[in-house]
Amino acid sequence: VLCDRYWPVEEGTEYYGLIQVTTVTCKQGPDYLITTINLRQRDSPTDRIITHYYYPSWPDQGVPNVPSLCAFTECVRQHLEAVPHLGPAVVHCSAGIGRSGTFVTLLWMMQLCVRGIQPGIKAAVKDMRQHRMWMVQTL
Known about the structure:
By secondary structure, this protein is α+β, with helices and mostly antiparallel strands. The chain has two domains: 1-54, no CATH class; 57-139, no CATH class. 30% of the residues lie in helices and 23% in strands. The chain is built from three helices and four strands. Strands 1-2-3-4 form a four-stranded antiparallel β-sheet, with no helix packed on it. Helix 1 packs across helix 2 (99-114) and helix 2 (99-114) packs across helix 3 (121-129). The protein starts with 11 loop residues before the first strand and ends in a 10-residue tail after the last helix. The mean pLDDT is 87.
């Protein structure tokens, strides 16, 4: 992991300052983990449930296994589609531009394809670079 692990890996609770982070469930996929996390600020009755998708199989500055990445992305896409009232997804990697930028582009393109739109990769990346500077360094 190239960033701090900010969630309990196994079921249980950890505290980060005033925030209580509880791992409720953790399901192992072929190359990824899907963790249900409950967040609560201490002394607050309100919980926030988060579905955390973790894909450790993608090497930093490397190339992922394409079928594996596509299966992972489709799993995330289906979750986002099934629960449309959720806010926007948060996507990150160590720097926030390479792997996460590629993933966001792939996810967006899959969403468009499901709607019958066939986007071009170069145009999609150029458009998304307007919103995430230096995203996807090589094209």
